[in-house]
């Protein structure tokens, strides 16, 4: 395959010029180091680049061998090696109009200059003269398609709170057909590489690999901006056309590493299912979730704050230091006042259902029914309203909403979405709907309580009369979800 950059040819003349340049560059290296570290001032008796009118009391700055510390030089060497390799592979040339995004000390800029790239601009959150100027990385002061080569240093993208915006901005200033190189400490697994790629819909990944020569892990990802990138609607999710989504290979792989399903119906489900939480292999403990637009937890059938958001999600779910937006979906009004006082939790006071419809549900206060243990008053199965039933004292009327549609309007495939669902049997209506509409593809990790006619603690040998489905039907649901690449766990 050919790239639109001229590969370098080493000729004798070239070599002489290079040696000369190298000498000059070592001088520049010192200069840059001095200016970077001493802020552009120096004492009058040293060898100076700037006037020293205001330098009383400043450190003397001599430019001699040894003034440039080993670490600084080593860092520059590391980038030079990496960039040289890019030149050899045809992704970068001396003539490339280049941009470094997020430079802190200018090692990367210096390295580009050393290997002979002349036109280099560097922007960072803080300026670091003389190499790096400060700019808003999310609104860069450049026109569309301004650069042939854009470099994003390690930590810049994964450390950003607006990864998607930064990725979009970086792609915007790159010319179609040209190259973007990102250094990162993340992306070591296929899953995170997939989410990384989703941040750059106008680019395609050419290669990804670890670089040698650094004490910490540095992964280099090379992308090319697509020639037809103007036609890609970046805001639009890939879902939607015919409600189909392709389950990425990476999800199917992750499914294989999950904890096994419990094959036999538990005799003491109140113990077995609860204990099973210790076997759960959480997705963020298997893969790197750094490259996502937002992090969202949706608790359907949230009940009171302590029942799962506070006791489990906040405390136990591994979040890789990300802040999650939390949606609590709970139709039972008894629980609503508590959520009004919780910051960062959005309450949806309606019932998740398959369409917008008024429903009736039963509030059970039956003390011997251990299904509701520790979870406050239990909610019966949601049923569409029929005239007669709404007259009963225990039957409340509530608004149900189209959960699949809501999900599609609320999150995108670029978000990391954790869904917990405990809806008293309505899962047998909701899940086919989620599959049908493709909304299930928006969910990264799914915790599902499947309600069946389980054995009861209160009354040995008696099954719960509340539900008709059997354990095998639940198992079928879990298996078929997993087979289609949904990372679903058995919730208790
Ligand atoms: C620059 O590109 C963005 C999308 O990448 C587009 O929305 C905008 O209109 C373009 N601006 C100009 C001046 O072409
Ligand atoms: C989370 O942050 C803490 C402190 O900032 C750090 O020690 C820890 O390594 C981080 N964990 C992850 C998974 O990034
Ligand atoms: C359901 O209700 C929501 C909120 O009122 C609305 O946005 C949505 O369009 C409705 N959906 C259907 C299918 O009527």
TrEMBL record:
Residues 127-180 form the Methyltransferase type domain. One of its GO terms (biological process) is methylation. PANTHER family: METHYLTRANSFERASE, METHYLTRANSFERASE TYPE 11 DOMAIN-CONTAINING PROTEIN. This is S-adenosyl-L-methionine-dependent methyltransferases superfamilyprotein. The chain crosses the membrane at residues 20-40. Keywords: Membrane, Methyltransferase, Transferase, Transmembrane, Transmembrane helix. GO terms for molecular function: S-adenosylmethionine-dependent methyltransferase activity. InterPro entries: DUF7870, Methyltransf_11, SAM-dependent_MTases_sf. Pfam families: DUF7870, Methyltransf_11. It comes from Zostera marina (Eelgrass). Residues 256-336, 395-492 form the DUF7870 domain.
């Amino acid at each position: 395959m050919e790239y639109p950059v001229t590969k370098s040819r080493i000729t004798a003349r070239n070599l002489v010029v290079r040696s000369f340049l190298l000498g000059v560059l070592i001088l520049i290296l010192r200069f840059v180091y001095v200016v970077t570290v001493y802020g552009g001032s120096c004492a009058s008796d040293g060898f100076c680049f700037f006037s020293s009118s205001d330098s009383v009391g400043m450190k003397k700055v001599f430019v001699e061998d040894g003034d440039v510390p080993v670490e600084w030089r080593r860092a520059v060497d590391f980038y030079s090696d990496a960039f040289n390799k890019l030149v050899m592979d045809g992704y970068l040339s001396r003539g490339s109009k280049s941009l470094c995004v997020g430079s802190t000390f200018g090692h990367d800029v210096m390295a580009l200059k050393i290997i002979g790239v002349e036109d280099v601009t560097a922007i960072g959150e803080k300026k670091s003269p003389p190499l790096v100027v400060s700019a808003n990385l999310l609104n860069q002061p450049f026109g569309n398609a301004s650069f042939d080569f854009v470099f994003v240093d390690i930590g810049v993208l994964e450390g950003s709170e607006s990864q998607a915006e930064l990725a979009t901005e970086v792609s915007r200033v790159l010319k179609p057909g040209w190259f973007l190189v990102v250094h990162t400490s993340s992306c070591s697994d296929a899953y995170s590489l997939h989410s990384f790629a989703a941040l750059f819909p106008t680019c395609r990944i050419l290669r990804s690999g670890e670089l040698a020569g650094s004490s910490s892990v540095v992964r280099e990802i090379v992308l090319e901006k697509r020639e037809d990138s103007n036609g890609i609607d970046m805001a639009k999710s890939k879902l939607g056309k015919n409600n189909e989504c392709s389950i990425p290979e990476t999800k199917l792989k992750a499914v294989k590493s999950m904890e096994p399903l419990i094959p036999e119906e538990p005799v003491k489900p109140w113990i077995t299912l609860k204990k099973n939480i210790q076997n759960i292999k959480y997705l963020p403990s298997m893969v790197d979730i750094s490259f996502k637009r937002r992090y969202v937890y949706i608790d359907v059938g949230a009940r009171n704050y302590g029942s799962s958001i506070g006791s489990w999600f906040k405390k136990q779910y591994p979040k890789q230091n990300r802040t999650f937006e939390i949606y609590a979906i709970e139709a039972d009004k008894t629980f609503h006042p508590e959520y009004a006082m919780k910051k960062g939790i959005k309450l949806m006071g309606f019932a998740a259902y398959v369409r917008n419809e008024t429903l009736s549900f039963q509030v059970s206060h039956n003390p011997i029914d251990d299904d509701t243990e520790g979870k406050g008053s239990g909610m019966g199965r949601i049923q569409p309203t029929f005239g007669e039933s709404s007259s009963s004292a225990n039957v409340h009327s509530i608004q149900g909403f189209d959960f699949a549609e809501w999900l599609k309007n609320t999150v995108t495939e670029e978000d990391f979405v954790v869904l917990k669902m405990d809806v008293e049997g309505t899962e047998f209506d909701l899940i086919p709907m989620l599959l049908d509409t493709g909304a299930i593809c928006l969910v990264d990790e799914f915790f599902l309580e499947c309600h069946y006619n389980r054995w009861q603690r209160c009354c040995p040998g008696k099954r719960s009369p509340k539900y008709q489905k059997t354990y095998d039907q639940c198992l079928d649901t879990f298996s078929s979800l997993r087979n289609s690449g949904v990372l679903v766990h058995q919730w208790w």
